[in-house]
Write a structure and sequence with these properties.
Signal peptide: 1-21
Region (Disordered): 128-173
Largest sheet: none
Keywords: Signal
Helix content: 55-70%
Distance between the termini: 82 Å
Structural class: mainly alpha
Biased composition (Basic and acidic residues): 133-144
Shape: globular
Order of helices and strands: HHHHHHHHH
Strand content: under 5%
Radius of gyration: 26 Å
Protein name: DUF3106 domain-containing protein
Length: 173
C-alpha cells in the first residue's frame, strides 16, 4: 500500500513538473533583444551618438534601443534641434549612474502630473533657462534651483485632504 502511494505520488509529481515546465510563467518578462556594440554601429550612428561613445558598450539594451531611435530621427531634426540633442547627450554622458537614475525618476514623476501642473513646471524651467549663467551657478551652489523647479510628484487629491481646489496661478510662484 505504501509503495503504491509512493509510486502514485511520483507519477503525479512528474506529470505536474512536465506540465509546469512546458508552459512559460504567466508573468514572463520579455526582454529587449541584444543591441549592437559601439563597433557595430554605422558611421552615421557613431557620429550622432559620439557623446555616448565612452559608455555605449555598458548601457542596458533598452537604453541603447532608445538612443538608436533618437539617432534614426536625428537627420530629420532641424539644425537647432540637432544642436540641442548633442548638448543634451554631452550633459547626459557626464552624469553618474545614480544621477541618471534620479533624472529618470524625476521625468517619470513629471509624466504623471496633471497638465496644469506640467505647464507650471515648464514655465518655471523657462524662467530658469532665461537666467544669466552666473545666476544659474549661484542657484546651483545654494541648492535653490531644484526648489525653483520642483513640483510635487503626485499631489494629494483635495478630497483626501478635505481641502477645496484653487486654480494654480503661475504668476504667484
Amino acid at each position: 500500500m505504501a509503495i503504491g502511494r509512493l509510486v502514485g505520488g511520483l507519477i503525479l509529481a512528474t506529470t505536474l513538473n512536465l506540465a509546469i515546465a512546458g508552459e512559460p510563467p504567466a508573468t514572463a518578462v520579455i526582454g529587449t533583444p541584444p543591441q549592437p556594440g559601439w563597433g557595430q554601429l554605422t558611421a552615421q550612428q557613431r557620429e550622432i551618438l559620439a557623446p555616448l561613445s565612452r559608455d555605449w558598450d555598458s548601457l542596458e539594451n533598452i537604453r541603447k534601443r532608445k538612443w538608436l531611435a533618437i539617432a534614426d530621427r536625428y537627420p530629420t531634426m532641424k539644425r537647432d534641434e540637432q544642436h540641442r540633442m548633442q548638448d543634451r547627450m554631452r550633459e547626459w554622458a557626464t552624469l553618474s549612474p545614480a544621477e541618471r537614475a534620479k533624472v529618470r525618476d524625476i521625468y517619470k514623476d513629471f509624466k504623471q502630473l496633471p497638465p496644469e501642473q506640467k505647464q507650471v513646471v515648464r514655465q518655471k524651467w523657462e524662467a530658469y533657462s532665461n537666467l544669466p549663467p552666473e545666476e544659474k551657478q549661484r542657484l546651483r551652489e545654494t541648492g535653490k534651483s531644484s526648489k525653483l523647479l520642483s513640483s510635487p510628484a503626485i499631489p494629494p487629491s483635495p478630497e483626501s485632504t478635505g481641502q477645496t481646489t484653487t486654480p494654480i496661478n503661475p504668476a504667484n510662484d
